[in-house]
UniProtKB/TrEMBL annotation:
It comes from the Bacteria. Keywords: Membrane, Transmembrane, Transmembrane helix. This is Conserved hypothetical CHP02185, integral membrane protein. The keyword Ribonucleoprotein does not apply. The chain crosses the membrane at residues 9-29, 35-57, 64-81, 87-106, 113-139, 159-179.
């Protein structure tokens, strides 16, 4: 497999900018309902951003796509949202997703890798809330503290497991839709093979 070049890094950056913008748009749209905001953003994003990630992977077709995406998104989530565990967790699961991709010909492996990556985004967001709740809540005050406290009260081991399964299912659906979109529009147009 060839190493990533400048063009690949630019493509990864562009697709990540679109994915992060979509993620933040979903976050804003769900922010009025604290429970939906905490539990719904990643599954909704997994459902509708499959085409973005699969197009990125098929456009670049080199190991490191998910790892670089994890580094970029980990930095963005850490700096913009204060989700500091994201800078480690998302790249780690991005690395695992890259290992799952194989030679980029098996769509099922690509969709599985996408699901693992989306789970990494979720774990990066809830890590401190789940394991360091008091520290996490100490960063907030007023209405935001009440919002975060309500979310922290609901984050338990069984809920994390359930949401992991929901994210994987949403990723499978989003990935399948992404594969259809790729085949119908981008393969026919010659953008990806």
């Amino acid at each position: 497999m060839k190493a990533l070049n400048k063009k690949d890094l630019i493509n990864i950056g562009i697709f990540n900018a679109v994915a992060v913008a979509l993620y933040f748009a979903i976050g804003v749209a769900t922010s009025g309902v604290p429970v939906l905001h905490v539990f719904g953003v990643t599954p909704i994003a997994a459902l509708i951003s499959g085409a973005i990630y699969l197009l990125m992977v098929m456009k670049v077709k080199k190991k490191g796509v998910f790892l670089i995406s994890g580094i970029v998104q980990g930095i963005v989530f850490s700096l913009m949202l204060g989700l500091y565990a994201s800078i480690v967790i998302i790249p780690l699961l991005g690395f695992i997703a890259d290992m799952i991709c194989g030679n980029f010909s098996a769509k099922k492996l690509l969709v599985t890798a996408y699901g693992i990556f989306m789970v990494g985004i979720y774990y990066g967001q809830i890590f401190f809330m789940l394991f360091f709740t008091k520290l996490y809540l100490s960063f907030y005050s007023g209405n935001m503290l009440a919002h975060k406290q309500a979310a922290a009260d609901r984050i338990t081991g069984p809920i994390v497991l359930l949401l992991t399964l929901i994210i994987l299912a949403a990723s499978a659906i989003g990935g399948a839709l992404g594969c259809r979109i790729l085949k119908k529009h981008f393969v026919k147009a010659g953008i990806v093979s």
